[in-house]
Amino acid sequence: MVLTVRTISPDRHVLFNASQPSVSFLQTPAWGQVKSEWRNESLGWFDEQDRLVGAGLVLYRQLPKVKKYLAYLPEGPTIDWDAEDIGVWLRPLAEHVKAAGAFGVRVGAPVVVRRWGPDTIKAAIADERIPRLSEALPDEVNHTHTHLRDSMRQLGWRPPDEEEGFAAGQPRFVFQLPTAGRTPEELLAGMNQLWRRNIKKAAKLGVTVRQGERDDLARFHPLYVETAERDHFTPRPLSYFETMWDALRAEDPDRIRLYLAEHEGDLVAATTWVRVGGHAWYSYGASSTAKREVRGSNAVQWQMIQDAVAAGCTVYDLRGITEGLEADDPHLGLIQFKVGTGGEAVEYLGEWDLPLNALLYKAFDVYMKRRG
Q1: Same-domain status, 153 and 186
Q2: Span 128-172, pLDDT tens digits
Q3: Which of 111, 215, 219, 332 is 20 to 30 A from 349 in CA distance terms?
Q4: What pLDDT was estimated at residue 365?
Q5: What's the start-to-end Cα distance of the chain, in Å?
Q6: Residues 151, 197 within the same domain
Q7: What percent of the chain has pLDDT over 90?
Q8: What pLDDT score does 363 carry?
Q9: Taking the CB of residue 318, how many other CB atoms lie within 10 A of it?
Q10: Where does the N-acetyltransferase domain start and stop, copy by copy (predicted)?
Q11: What is the pLDDT of residue 299?
């Protein structure tokens, strides 16, 4: 099989994505509009009959003072990752972006490697001999990934330096709640006792959850900044969320939603929800330090999960987690919060780089690490 890669229109890219069972929202043309600091391009893979058989969103980040770029396809491209020869798909991608001025290309292979169920995760947290999730025996292993990993290495691809947390780009470990064929009642029964009690408590105390409009982003943002200060991360400006809302809604009126949890007129929690086909993501969240006892965070998550089921989603994705399971790990609470939903931890093959110009690739790597 011989494939060619060329630029396609955003409209054609949207139609291709709509024909797929699952595509990351980071691989939609709309996401290219959100990441305005990067140049973006929609690419198509065409077979010998000139049929569109794959697609991807490329973001080009320029090297300072030089018109050379890192070509980045977050959580993509959408191609046949199970192909016997992955080079058939990746070689024309490398040739295309090199001709466009790229000194390197990074892809995020959306291939599941391992899964850990809630009971396995809780047992691992309780076992002092298991400091990291990757050291716990998984409940499911995708053995075909070994061939893919070996093939990519032979083609010159390599994982970027693995660092703690989320510094290396998109997280390799995420937490997902499978929803296919399950009713809200079944999902609620699958949650742990604390989650069920908190959902019930929020309802009893009068917490209400509603969908907001664009103007409500101005209410969401101060709560988000408060959360950033409490949890020690750098918040994005309000303009970022407004751009995200406008771009995603322009592509699909139901691509993004804003949820507001209120108690006696006070905003106690707020989240953004993104959906592409049968996959829904919890993308950003905020909660107030005051009135934490009314459990607005649980209430808003429960509403989003129910709405994901109503929308026909097969997966509700709570996004990234880190690996650390030790009692003093600062991110352990995040895993414990998410595992209470009854979902599973999922490891993807993750991000891989192909340097096209070794010297410029190294210079860019140093630059990005200095930026922090």
Answers
A1: no
A2: 999 999 999 999 999 888 899 999 999 999 987 644 333 457 889
A3: 332
A4: 77
A5: 42
A6: no
A7: 86
A8: 82
A9: 22
A10: 207-372
A11: 98
The share of the chain scoring above pLDDT 70, in percent, equals 97
Looking at the structure, tell me whether residues 81 and 216 fall in a common domain: no
Domain count, the chain: 2
147 and 11 in a common domain: yes
Contacts of 216 (CB under 8 A, 6+ apart): 258, 260
Residue span of the structural domain in which 264 resides: 180-313
Are residues 263 and 184 part of one domain?
Answer: yes
Q: How far apart are CA 70 and CA 58, in angstroms?
A: 10
Residue 13 lies in a domain: yes
Contact 285, 131 (CB under 8 A): no
The whole model's pTM is what? 0.93
Confidence of residue 372 (pLDDT cuts 50, 70, 90): low
pLDDT band of residue 19 (cuts 50, 70, 90) is: very high
Give the CATH number, domain containing residue 80: 3.40.630.30
Which residue from 314, 310, 245, 335 is spatially nearest to 284, judged by alpha carbons? Answer: 245
Residue type, 13: H
pLDDT of residue 161: 63
Q: What is the SS3 string spanning 64-89?
A: CCCCCEEEEECCCCECCCCCCCCHHH
Classify residue 32: in a domain, yes or no: yes
Flag whether 164 is in a domain.
no
